[in-house]
Amino acid sequence: MNELLLVVDTATPAGSVALSRGTTLLGEIALNVRKNHTDHLLNIIQQLLKDADLSLGQLDAFGVVLGPGSFTGLRVGVATVKGLALATDRPVVGVSSLATLAMQVPLSVFPVCALLDARKSEVYAGLFDWKNDRLEPMGEETVLPPARLLDSLDQELVFVGDGALAYRELIVARLGGRAHFPPWPLHMPRASSAASLVLDGLRQQKVIPLESLVPAYIRPSEAEVMWASREG
Amino acid sequence: MNELLLVVDTATPAGSVALSRGTTLLGEIALNVRKNHTDHLLNIIQQLLKDADLSLGQLDAFGVVLGPGSFTGLRVGVATVKGLALATDRPVVGVSSLATLAMQVPLSVFPVCALLDARKSEVYAGLFDWKNDRLEPMGEETVLPPARLLDSLDQELVFVGDGALAYRELIVARLGGRAHFPPWPLHMPRASSAASLVLDGLRQQKVIPLESLVPAYIRPSEAEVMWASREG
Description:
- The structure is a homodimer.
- Helix content of chain A is 35%, strand content 26%.
- Chain A is of the alpha/beta class.
- In chain A, helix 1 packs across helix 2.
- The first copy, chain A, folds into 2 domains: 126 residues, ATPase, nucleotide binding domain (Nucleotidyltransferase, domain 5, 2-Layer Sandwich); 83 residues, Nucleotidyltransferase, domain 5 (2-Layer Sandwich), CATH 3.30.420.
- At the A-B interface, strand 3, helix 1 and helix 7 of A face strand 3, helix 1 and helix 7 of B.
- Strand 3 of chain A pairs antiparallel with strand 3 of chain B.
């Protein structure tokens, strides 16, 4: 099976798009320049397809990072993939931004704590472990203040993600030598890292019907909270 | 220090270019579509700078993967970086393709055996270990037939690189459960992974004078061997 996949990640200000055929990565464009995803996502998708001499119609499926992460970023990413999938009549697989980050610390000696900055002094957090060379989640993904997360952790862990960078001092102050960090280029989620989760999902037929394809926010967006409080 | 770096990798048919500011990755373009690096490298460099709203003149330094790897690819990569560095009067740091691959398995539970396909039924091989959260080489990089490499290995190892994929069956036949492999998107060297080695090198002033900047081939190129045999 040599499924041609296009995978999109917009969970953080660093967006990326990857293209793969079966288990071969064909290319990736990643940009972390705080430009608006709305303006640039379609451009980099087109650029990548052009560089690989491929057209949208040749793709077999799409993958998208559903979240948790930036509300606006995820909406743009999911809406774009939804549009492309509708136009080409191809299936979509959605994956977690935190699992994507954990894929970037493969076969790590300690479990992985993937953290994304959730603003409002909170982090999105997911714990993962490598068992038999496969990534396995340890419990539910959550959103909470970093200090409260650290209260619940005492084992040696590898911290990855922009939340790990934002709260690195706090993490080290609490855990000391039990806190480990991968090299700095690995702290942004990458569509190429999501691609292997997407391919697994596609082969296990974990396809999401387009009408159910929505970002995974974990907590309601600020706009929804404000709306609910005005309504209530 | 917020050094603006452009890093180029052409050690395999999968070329990539990364841009970073200090310890923040600004972007990366990776292409594994077996196009000629000569045609595409300058294009993707220009594309990445444009996407990041930067110009060549703003860069503080260049990084390049010196090898080992594809003779032609490395020549194109090194020549391009040399030209850009000469024109902008900026320093160049060179790093190993095998160390770059090992950076993609950070904090791994077992030592890393980075392998690149050297053609002629040989592999370029480098062994690395993560000590105190830093990558350390275990001995010299070498080129040899994979079976001979495997004769010398009996410990549990993580195999990464296109050589690990090309000889995966042989590796598993010899080492069984002692051989581990990261997820498939991680087997091509990435300029972004080289970037942290380049930044370390720059800060330790391991700059290569342009006249000494040559690819690290490990063995003489086929052309040189043929030339030498004709001469001899």
